[in-house]
Design a protein that fits this description.
Number of strands of chain A: 13
Largest sheet of chain B: none
CATH architecture of chain A: Alpha-Beta Complex
Radius of gyration of chain B: 19 Å
Strand content of chain B: under 5%
Largest interface: A-B, 31 and 26 residues
Number of domains of chain A: 1
CATH topology of chain A: Sulfite Oxidase, Chain A, domain 2
Mean pLDDT of chain B: 92
Radius of gyration of chain A: 20 Å
Distance between the termini of chain B: 19 Å
Order of helices and strands of chain B: HHHHHHHHH
Helix content of chain B: over 70%
Number of helices of chain B: 9
Number of helices of chain A: 9
Largest sheet of chain A: 8 strands, mixed
Strand content of chain A: 15-25%
CATH superfamily of chain A: Oxidoreductase, molybdopterin-binding domain
Number of domains of chain B: 1
Distance between the termini of chain A: 43 Å
Helix content of chain A: 10-25%
Structural class of chain A: alpha+beta
Oligomer: heterodimer
Order of helices and strands of chain A: HHEHHEEHEEHEEHEEEEHEEH
Number of strands of chain B: 0
């Protein structure tokens, strides 16, 4: 119900998000009260989140795209409470608990390196650079679970073309924000901060690679990598860098955070591949969040038709 | 040295009380399941949770003897069996969750995992070693096995290393949760090593 786009309503007629949210919370709380005898709902709230509920804001002018799936969408609740975002802690419940500290405005993304027009993009520039579209993608985590998420954004290629990459731009390096004041996870030395990720230039320019500013039609929640991240649906989730502050076009293959931490387990490419196991577990199957039985993992996460040609002639066991 | 400072065994209500206390985590999980409180990945949650409680049970079981030796309170000795069986219960639930809920009786996949995945090999070996201990935990079996019972039950010392390998190999880099359990296990096994070494030294002097 609440997800119907109401673009033709005057602004004054729209219930403020906070009011709406609090009403919905009340209804949901009441339902929980009825179902469980009132014992669980308040305790669950106390357990789930020690902060005030984050404000949710709709993105204007989002059009639907052809990227749809027959798969059921993973509920918003699950997409926003089960995250790997080590800057906010290693537990998958940590980001939802801690990410509220992140300040996403002002936000500047520096795009430079091997290009003719290096420049900084304010988050508002990024939001205006190209029309926003909704794309439903499968998301497969290297840990063996998956989700189906309606992202909002536009191809990363649109941003990269704006800085005019030169012929030496063979790779793209992404750096995530690393602010110890707002990111408690940085106290741990589990990864070398800032988190860096990388793509080959043809992967970065591929139309599937999405510069992402939202999900479920709303501004990207902080625990999901606000205000801007990338989504590379045919690779394991950790390849999709979150809360990006810098994008650098480079000639040499960049060193990525997980590859640096455990080179034997996390390769540069990390394409979803059911035939190449993680050294400690099989990648043949996955558990879709919300489902009981495991399902088979698809080659390139089901995007083989679009991306397999990028890797023709490559030994994907060697270049895992 | 006064071996038994408090004559007589523990009061009759202690064992049921210990059982009830030890079943609380399991009941809590059942409750969370029906209250929808297990989060986005409930199967992972219950598997991890029962595994952790099994490890805690094992460490509590191994604490009884040092506690008895330190305090001279011999009446607590039977708690060793109670806690051991509690551990076995949590291990069984943990294993059954893997077999039934996580893998859904996919025997070839499970067999491949036991052979190929070191963390599953370690965990499954731990289960195989625990099995005879649980089976021979009754008074009748203890009488029947005589001296061999004590030797058989020394297998328990292999369990903490196996279980901790199972734990450390299963988690991703940077996860620190196994540390407290590792330190506790080192302390409990270290205590036994020191006691054993001292006893030997005393015997050799005689």
């Amino acid at each position: 119900m609440n997800r119907i786009w109401r673009g033709d309503l005057p602004a004054s007629a729209i219930t403020p998000r906070a009011t709406f949210e609090s009403r919905r919370e009340f209804v949901r709380g009441a339902a929980a009260l009825a179902l469980t005898g009132g014992l669980w709902a308040p305790l669950g709230r106390a357990f789930a989140n020690d902060a005030e509920p984050p404000t949710r804001e709709r993105l204007a002018g989002v059009r639907k795209s052809g990227y749809k799936l027959v798969d059921a969408l993973t509920p918003y609740e699950d997409v926003t409470t089960y995250n790997n975002f080590y800057e906010f802690g290693t537990d998958k419940a940590d980001p939802a608990r801690n990410a509220h500290r992140l300040r996403t405005r002002p936000w500047v993304v520096q795009v430079d390196g091997e290009c003719a027009r290096p420049r900084s993009f304010d988050i508002d520039d990024i939001l205006r650079l190209a029309p926003l579209e909704e794309r439903v993608y499968r998301m497969r985590c290297v840990e063996g679970w998956s989700m189906v998420i309606p992202w909002v954004g536009y191809p990363l290629a649109r941003l990269l073309k704006a800085v005019e990459p030169n012929s030496r731009a063979k790779f793209v390096e992404f750096s995530t924000q690393a602010d110890p004041a707002t990111m408690p996870g940085l106290r741990s030395r589990v990864l070398a901060w800032p988190y860096t990720e990388g793509l080959r230039i043809d992967e970065a320019m591929h139309p599937l690679t999405l510069l992402t500013v939202g999900l479920y039609g709303e501004v990207l929640p902080k625990q999901n990598g606000a205000p801007v991240r990338i989504v590379v649906p045919w690779k394991y989730g950790f390849k999709s860098a979150k809360s990006i502050v810098r994008i650098r076009l480079v000639e040499a293959m960049p060193i990525t955070a997980w590859n640096r931490a455990q080179p034997s387990e996390y390769g540069f490419y990390s394409n979803v591949n059911p035939e190449v196991d993680h050294p400690r577990w099989s990648q043949a199957k996955e558990r879709r969040i919300g489902e009981f039985r495991k399902r088979d993992t698809l080659m390139f996460n089901g995007y083989g038709e679009e991306v397999a040609s990028l890797y023709s002639g490559m030994d994907l066991r060697k270049w895992f | 040295m006064v071996l038994d400072a408090r004559p007589g065994g523990l009061p009759g209500w202690v064992h049921p009380a210990v059982w009830a206390l030890c079943l609380l985590p399991l009941l809590w999980l059942v409750w969370l399941t029906f209250a929808g409180g297990l989060g986005a990945n409930p199967i992972e949650f219950v598997t991890h949770s029962t595994g952790t409680w099994a490890l805690i049970g094992l460490l509590l079981t191994l604490s009884v003897t040092p506690l008895r030796q330190l305090t001279g309170w011999n009446a607590i000795l039977p708690l060793r069996r109670t806690l051991g069986l509690v551990t076995f219960l949590y291990v069984c639930v943990h294993l059954l969750l893997w077999v039934v809920v996580d893998q859904f009786f996919d025997w070839p996949a499970m067999l491949a995992d036991i052979v190929k995945r070191p963390y599953i090999t370690a965990g499954f070996t731990g289960f195989l070693l625990l099995l005879p201990l649980a089976v021979t935990s009754t008074d009748a079996m203890r009488r029947r096995l005589g001296r061999r019972w004590a030797r058989l039950h020394r297998l328990v010392y292999l369990l903490p290393p196996l279980v901790l390998l199972h734990y450390w190999w299963a988690v991703k880099k940077g996860v620190t949760e196994p540390w407290p359990y590792t330190l506790a296990a080192a302390l409990l096994l270290g205590w036994r090593a020191v006691t054993w070494w001292r006893a030997r030294a005393t015997v050799s002097r005689v």
